[in-house]
Amino acid sequence: MSTCATGFRTRVKICGLTRPEDVQCAVDSGADALGFVFYPPSPRAIEAEQLAELVKSVPAFVTVTALFVNPSQEEVQSVLDAARIDLLQFHGDEDDGFCRQFHKSYIKAVRVRQASDMVEACLRFPGALSLLLDSYKPGVPGGTGESFDWSLIPEDLNKSIILAGGLDPSNVKTAIQQVRPFAVDVSGGVEASRGIKDASKIKAFMNEVYRD
Question: Which CATH superfamily does the domain covering 11-210 fall into?
Answer without folding.
Answer: Aldolase class I (3.20.20.70)
